[in-house]
Specification:
The protein is about 25% helix and about 20% strand. The protein is α+β, with helices and mostly antiparallel strands.
Length: about 140
């Protein structure tokens, strides 16, 4: 079995998702949306985003959720984590309704840069991350209200 296939098989053999490495699913990707967090905004960032995903799939979910950074004026903050759906901006909540995904309690987001975020749904039982949105300007969950 090829090394890559063994890695993917490992995700499904690991009963504890925290020790699993992520697998990416594109089945929910919202490529039709062209608002502030649409995939059409990816442009020249495509290479770095795919490099980021490649780097993340070499880590366990524990390694991923343990990563932190220190903003200049505060204590260390988790880099990659879930956000309750009701904390997202109204447009994102409305879009989830349109996509019939409004029954999802929370979305998971990866911090890929200063403002850039990669949003999706983490399915813990399988370790799969279903990509949903590319948010280059931190609009899905704005810090300024």
């Amino acid at each position: 079995m090829a090394k890559r296939m063994r890695t993917l098989a490992k995700v499904h053999e690991t009963p504890d998702w925290y020790r699993a490495t992520p697998a990416w699913s594109f089945s929910l990707i919202d490529h039709e949306f062209s608002g502030e967090w649409g995939w059409d905004k990816l442009g020249q960032r495509m290479g770095p985003v795919f490099d980021f995903l490649k780097q993340m799939e070499s880590l366990t979910w524990k390694d991923i959720t343990d990563q932190s950074y220190r903003p200049r004026t505060s204590r260390p903050t988790q880099k990659h984590h879930a956000i309750p759906q009701d904390k997202l901006c109204r447009d994102a909540q409305d879009r989830l309704v349109e996509l019939e995904l409004d029954d999802v309690d929370e979305l998971f987001r990866f911090r890929t840069g200063f403002k850039e975020r990669l949003w999706g749904i983490h399915v813990p039982d399988s370790g799969v991350f279903c990509l949903l949105w590319w948010d280059p300007n931190h609009r899905v969950y704005p810090l300024d209200g």
